[in-house]
Amino acid sequence: MAHAVISLDQFTKAFSALDVGAHGSVALRDLDLGLIARHPEPVSAGTAIGQKFVSPEFMAFAQSGGSIGTYRAITPFDHIQRTFAEFTHGICPDCAKEVFPRSSGKHTAL
Questions:
Q1: Candidates 3.40.50.2000, 2.40.50.140, 3.30.450.20, 3.40.1400.10; correct CATH number of 8-96?
Q2: pLDDT of 18-38, one tens digit each?
Q3: Sign of the C-alpha dihedral, residues 94, 96, 97, 102?
């Protein structure tokens, strides 16, 4: 196990470098599903940190105990339908429906 102090700005900078399409996003949540970092920022800078607004589909995934999965859901922050790829031990972007209309999503690990 390693411990490090990483500023939220570092996550935001790294997330902004990922190509997830015009309406895509990438987010990092804590074990209680609180938002740690997201790009693009869903509301006024810094105000979304800690919020636990998640879709019913995300909640079902989190409660399932699975470590990897994909699903489609409408994002509570901006009401865009996306294909989500979730990893409990990594970071993966959420791609908007119009980016990959016929696929299960674009998986990019950071």
A1: 3.30.450.20
A2: 888 888 888 888 888 888 888
A3: negative
